[in-house]
Amino acid sequence: MARKQSDYLASLLAEEVSADAPAKPAPVEKAVPLPPQDEPARASSRAGLSLLGRENALARVASGEVRQVTQLLVDPSRVRVWGGNARLQSKLSEENCRDLIDSIIAEGGQKVPAVVRHVSGDPDHDYELIAGTRRHFAISWLRAHSYPDMRLLAQVAELDDEAAFRLADIENRARKDISDIERARNYAAALDLHYGGKAVRMAERLKVSKGWLSKMLKAAALPDDVLEAFANLQELTLNPAYKLATVMDDPRRAKAVSKEARTITAENRMLVDAGSPALLGSLVLKRLLAATASPAPEAPRLSLEVQGPLGRPIVAVKGVSRQGITLHVPMASGASDEAVVEGVRSLLASLRESGITVR
Predict the structure, then answer these.
(1) pLDDT band of 335, cuts 50, 70, 90
(2) Sheet holding 152-156, edge to edge
(3) 22-56 burial by CB neighbour count: b if 16+ within 10 A, else e?
(4) What is the DSSP string of 109-144?
(5) Rounded to two decimals, what is the model's pTM?
(6) Do the beta carbons of residue 243 and residue 286 sit within 8 Å?
(7) How far apart are the C-alpha atoms of 163 and 110, rounded to whole Å?
(8) Dihedral angle sign, alpha carbons of residues 172, 145, 82, 160
(9) Which pLDDT value is given to residue 127?
(10) Helix (H, G, I), strand (E, B), or coil: what is residue 205?
(11) Between the CA of residue 27 and those of 48, 52, 88, 104, 225, what are the distances in Å?
(12) Which residues lie closer than 8 Å to 154 by C-beta, 6 or more apart?
């Protein structure tokens, strides 16, 4: 994690203790060597110094100069995942957590603690997981596969939902295994939940640019059926996702993109079932952006006519506009005037059936 991000993360955890800047560490006083004495006297002196040091340490904790961090080893089944977490829990698997599982086995346990908070009113859980879903999954998997004594190392923090969201977000920024789409959707949900729908306020709190946040929120609008076309969501990064979401603003294009996405999803399913890799995200994106709506069928041209006794048109409708109806009476049709008039009446009746009237 970058230094700036780690400092921001530390500041979030520190908010629960005090809004003031931490005091400067007190200088460490060196003990003055005591003159040689007999053994009982030396023991008494050591006890006195130990007691004094303990009192000083407790005083520093009480004053806020030193902050105590509570870390526990807990059963992961007693820890529920917070709903505001960005990661799609359904996407976690032994395969994509294999590196972490192997690392925990090799090191004899988890080294980096997850962040949790206390919950109440839930008989099945004691804590709620704010950050560390892969660690939670890995420990749970190990307990179910030959390592029943493994427990989740967790740091307990007192955080409201908005602070929990910011803490989880700053940790997720340093992780490559969380897709931009997962984060974008997490941002979209948090916008209304924590910031009253005000993107400017959200950008200030997260310390990100308004333009970047706007792109993330736009990308979050991509529907599920389009996202399912990508076998690996990490291949759909922010800029392409934003471009695709912009295309979806056109209802006709959106329909065509969704149709192509369903086709790609079916193709990927068949490829995987046959033991072949799914389509690359770059190819999927190219096909989705190339999907266009079928041209709208042209309205049938109104070409009504009445034929005479010789099989030739005696009167025909050539056009209909706001100004009126244009009729064409051909020469040398062989029809009488009465037949032409009757033909006009017939055409007017047909037009009325089509919703066109001269009244």
Answers:
(1) confident
(2) 71-74, 152-156, 114-118, 127-131, 79-81
(3) eeeeeeeeeeeeeeeeeeeeeeeeeeeeeeeeeee
(4) S--SPEEEEE--S-TT-SEEEEE-HHHHHHHHHHHH
(5) 0.57
(6) no
(7) 25
(8) negative
(9) 93
(10) helix
(11) 20, 16, 48, 39, 62
(12) 71, 72, 73, 74, 79, 113, 114, 115, 116, 127, 129, 132
Q: How far is CA 325 from the centre of its chain?
A: 57
What is the per-residue pLDDT across 303-325, written as a single tens digit (0 to 9) for each?
578 887 777 888 888 777 767 78
**Helix-then-strand count for the chain, H and E:** 13, 8
Beta strands at 152-156 and 71-74: parallel, antiparallel or unpaired: antiparallel
d(CA 68, CA 104): 26
User: pLDDT digits over 5-24, tens only?
Assistant: 555 555 555 554 444 444 44
Please, what is the angle between helix 199-206 and helix 180-195, to 10°?
110
- For residue 64, what are its two tokens? 């806020």
Residues 334-350 have a mean pLDDT of 84
Rounded CA gap, 60 and 29, in Å? 14
**Neighbouring-strand partners of residue 127:** 79, 118
List all residues 6 or more positions away from 178 whose beta carbon is below 8 Å from its beta carbon: 86, 87, 172
Q: At a CB cut-off of 8 Å and minimum separation 6, what does 34 contact? A: 42, 45
**Strand 313-321 with 305-307, pairing:** antiparallel
> Do 131 and 115 meet the contact criterion of CB atoms below 8 Å apart?
yes
> CA-to-CA distance for 143 and 166, rounded, in angstroms?
30
CA distances, 315 to each of 46, 306, 352 (Å): 123, 6, 17
Q: List pLDDT tens digits, range 179-199.
A: 899 899 989 999 999 999 999
Closest of 121, 235, 127 to residue 181, by C-alpha: 235
Question: d(Cα 299, Cα 294) in Å, to the nearest integer?
Answer: 15
